[in-house]
Write a structure and sequence with these properties.
- InterPro entries: Beta-lactam/transpept-like, Peptidase_S13.
- Belongs to the peptidase S13 family.
- It contains 14 helices and ten strands.
- It is α+β, with helices and mostly antiparallel strands.
- The chain has two domains: 227 residues, Beta-lactamase (3-Layer(aba) Sandwich), CATH 3.40.710.10; 137 residues, D-tyrosyl-trna(Tyr) Deacylase, Chain: A, CATH 3.50.80.20.
- It has a five-stranded antiparallel sheet, with helices on both faces. It has a five-stranded mixed sheet with strand order 6-5-4-3-7, covered by helices on one side.
- A hairpin with a 5-residue loop joins strand 1 and strand 2.
- The longest helix is centred in the middle third of the chain and has 16 residues.
- The two termini are 27 Å apart.
Amino acid sequence: MVPDRGTWQLTAGAAVAGLAFAAAAVTAAGPWDDGQRRAEREHAAAHGRTGGADHQAGGRGREEAEAPRPAPAPSAPGVLHAASAPTVPAIAPAALADALGPLLDDPGLGPMRSASVVDAATGGQLYGRDTGTAMVPASTVKIATAAAVLSATSPAHRIPTRVVATPDFRGITLVGGGDPTLDLPRMRTLADRTAKALRDRGVTTIRLTYDTSLYRGPLIHPIGAGNDNIAPVTALMVNAGRLDDSTEGPAPRSADPAGDAARAFVGLLSEHGVNTDSGPAPGKAPAKGPALAATYSAPVPVLVERMLTNSDNDLAEALARQTALATRRPASFAGAEAAVTDRLTRLKLPLTGARFADGSGLNRADRVSAALLTTLLVRAADPARPELRPVLTGLPVAGFTGTLSGRAAAGSGGLVRAKTGTLSGVDTLAGTVSSADGRLLAFAFLAGDTPSASAARPALDRLAAALLP
């Protein structure tokens, strides 16, 4: 997902009428981000912007423009607030039970099912079945990862990749900061700046090392090596270690993303007449070495939206480790689990039985309840917590974006926003809809031991569509 450029905001007085109009017009006009046209958000992506207050000033150099800047403005704070104050009668829980009960009994959902539907304004339960039962969440655990990193870091926080020199400038170290979104164009810019800094000092031959020491513990996710869903979890990689031209979804992955990144950097330096007399080799950056150049990821809120929309596993693990680093814990699977748990505890969430063994949901040791997921969504809709808003704006839009682009039960296209989750025998869906009475509803449906994704996914989509007007 990408940052906002313009926002279309509804006034509080026109909130209910505006929501009704949006529901009627959305199919023709395209998907909305609770008041924001998605097309404008996509247009803003090309400019690297993160919100109304975070635009590059005229005349700034590219390197300065990439450096961390003041926090961006939160996305569309007024619309969710307006949706939280309906003036029409409340939804009848009995009617929801009549609509959802038979759908939840669909054989395609297998024998293990739980569900929660709540009013996002009040947190009041409108429908529930085994809401507190902790189940394998698959990728819906990314909602927890998102809330944790957003609560732990500044909205302006960007992940750096740096080049540090030895005191004599004869050796340089490429230092990974944990940015899986680093791509070849940004790497080329980093090499351009590094080569210029070296040539300015009369240096054309260097020793190159690369430093991945920011991350601790195992590189290989418990799902195993050689899996197309995730690369080795390392602090330095280009294009998330993908060996093809893809930018999302499964892809062949490098067994050595950090080494590949360093070798690519060598090649880019050589284009500028800077060559290596050895390496690249793993090594530690000099503790007080002069900084030559740096490149930065998009701000964390933008990374969160991208992670949720595309269900990006590599980015999810990186953001879990950013949570660990922000809370002074080791950037490892264990450190990230402790950090995410701590941040969610501070948000006063129902964590009974919960476990966050990884950030992506690929680990079957993960456990969350339907109640936890809907409470997370309620927190993200709270006007008092604008830092959590990207949890909502990053959710895929049914029939339009991300992992829901090819999924929409009849009448739900553009109106359901939800995070998907799929493992063998596990299918989940959690997100938001606006109800007939103008309320923002948060929902979570979890199913285990499902016979097949082809049977479970349509059943989940029908459950979400049943909440619509």
